[in-house]
Amino acid sequence: MKxxxxxxxxxxxxxxxxxxxxxxxxxxxxxxxxxPVPTPEFEDLAPPIGAEVLRGRVxxxxxxxxxxxxxxxxxxxxxxxxxxxxxxxHWTTTAEDGSFVFDxxxxxxxxxxxxxxxxxxxxxxxxxxxxxDLVWKLEKGPLAPLDALPEVRRADLAGRVDSPDRPSIQGxxxxxxxxxxxxxxxxxxxxxxxxxxGVTKRRTSVSADGTFRFEGVVAGSYHIELLPPFARDGSxxxxxxxxxxxxxxxxxSPRLTIRGGTISGKLVDPEGRPIEGALVEAWPLAQPTHRxxxxxxxxxxxxxxxxxxxxxYTLRVRAxxxxxxxxxxxxxxxxxxxxxxxxxxxGSD
Length: 349
Prior knowledge:
mainly beta, Immunoglobulin-like, 3 domains, 4-stranded antiparallel β-sheet, 1 helix
């Protein structure tokens, strides 16, 4: 057994050596005989520099020299594919008398762009070489200077909102209207909104004691509008409006009053029982999109809607399938108490 294993091991070594020798001979036969690799030679790159010189002056419409004008000279199209991106741009600035000079130019057609911060860009074409000095006279002068924001003067503005007593309505406590939550809208009176003045629209809230304050208001003419709590960040309804002049030397303390009227009423069914939870809406007859927040009737069927500027309103009451509408005229500071017809929540046949 040991002899057989030894013989097998020797045969394996011999076969492996023979296979290795054959592989080496095959690689030698397949290898290419390469000589030394020649070094490529390229022509020297010549920079696109010519011998032509361009001199000239740029004049304003009145014939005076235009100094400080930037001129960019685009090179001619010189490559076979029409691409001049490899050629350099030439750039210079005119002297005080409007003179300029370009050198090392190649012959050909160029495009010149003349520009300055306070002028419209101008395009000119020029063929190099140019006999003598070139003169470019501009058709337009400098642009008018832009409006600048004037010196801004600021002052604080403080005022007060007066609250009248609320109309007496069943289920609502008497007394002044709470001022907390009302909003003051400060609007500039500048007739030209495009004119730079620094004034801007601002808002602030009224505190519980009826006071309000704007800090750092830009001096100018304004008017102030009073909005109810539900109209915060809106523009209507305006309950009061006053004009005010803001001046750092001394500004008046504006006073506004919570104005407007009220619509109230009581809703019952055909048996005379109060209807609780009926929905009540109101909007100006001429502006149906300006709708007051929906109110609902209480346990006694009573409802009220405050802060209605004098106008004619549409009042809609909905309870179940029953709906009724009335046209109501509201007066300043008055409570329009309605005598509503009984409403059947089951609707009518």
